[in-house]
Fold this protein.
Amino acid sequence: MNIKRAKKEIENTIKAYLQKDAYGDYVIPSIRQRPILLIGAPGIGKTQIMEQIARECDIALVAYTITHHTRQSAIGLPFILEKEFDGKKYSVTEYTMSEIIGSVHEQMEKTGCREGILFIDEINCVSETLAPTMLQFLQCKTFGNQQVPEGWIIVAAGNPPEYNKSVREFDVVTLDRVKKIDVEPEFSVWKEFAYTAGVHGAIISYLELKKENFYQMETRVDGKRFATARGWQDLSELLTVYEKLGLEVDQEVIFQYIQHEKIAKDFANYLELYYKYQTDYQIQRILEGNVRESVYEKLKFAPFDERLSVIGLLLAALSEKFEAAHDADAYVTTLFDALKNYRRMLGEGSIPAELLDSMSRDILFKAEVDRENGRIDRKEEHLQKKLGKALDNYAKIVKTQGITESKEAFECVRAEFVKENEKREQIISAVAENLECAFDFMERAFGESQEMAVFITELTVNFYGAKFLSENECGRFYKYNKGLLANERRASILGGIEEVEMLMNGN
């Protein structure tokens, strides 16, 4: 199955394992809660989905890459203990607490969360001395003498043997005690994540044309050649920062992340064209409705892959604006909820400015703790910090104006909130105009065509785009989405591209 389906299956399993009966006991007892064994190629996002699942299920997460551990750190150090049996004293070997089990207890103490996920990565790549310990862990949920605490679900991940020579096959006895999920890389699923994660538009549009290059793993005489989802995402981060710094990303830089010479070279060539198209077609002018006639003339004679690249550039620019609209809306919604709480607490006799100060400190402190404990991602952390700073600013305004009455203080704060809401509406209105201009361009350049089908489909795949369209009316989107069987036609289109490329390459 793909990583999206695997994530859903793990979430469902966790919900089932943590379900309690009327007496507060787990419906499925701990002994019957099979560890989840996730087997998939390297770099497809196994660790990332565990972080997402923990946040979404509001439980703790302790993650270890087991190949970084020795037998001693995994099961603890031995020591001699005197015990008495049937009146006789014996020297018995005991073990100190496993570092891994210790980390689970520390996480519970730190977060106050009694339930969580213990994630062990690369479990089938351990050393010979540690292999029996891992089998015991999967079969008995113990490290040394210590049991994994009740309420903690074991998820282990490993690589198939074709990707790693160090892989140890599990025997039937072990496999019969786990819930095994096999995961395969799939670009269409990763693309949904890529839009949400802000992966660079050049990477998304390139892989749309060259899906076969999304994930490659080859073994040659001179070593391994590979391209992975992790590599593309990390390259995206670097590419974005390099652009801001005015630095060049060439083939050698790309190869540091996409360690497959042919793919790295191919993407380097595409990236050069991507930047050229960015200049030639002036995407920002398109979104402003100020398109030069020469652009339409150039597109008339452009090859199909160039036209798709232009659409990719347009979608990438729109995606940034959709995300900005989403962030503005999320901020105002969160601020509104905070001010409702402020109004309620004002009625309890609090001093207006001091109450705002207190709320600000609490929000900022919680954001810091939640981020440190992995309970929120970076975007949510930034949202909470922005909220905390806004309340701090409101407190300063109330103090500066010498307001001490609750009603007057709330009216003052409400007036500041109205300004923020107006900014939100302005952003959303501007994005709606950008989208209309994009449709003007698409209709003039391509009409009701294959290219329009691709454009419509990508708008629905983009998380922020789909959300914007669901909340803001766009008549032309619904017209084309209904009139064109976008997904089916797009698959046929891109399939035709691949056939042409194969013919051109003599395959």
In short: Confidence is low (pLDDT under 50) at residues 499-507.
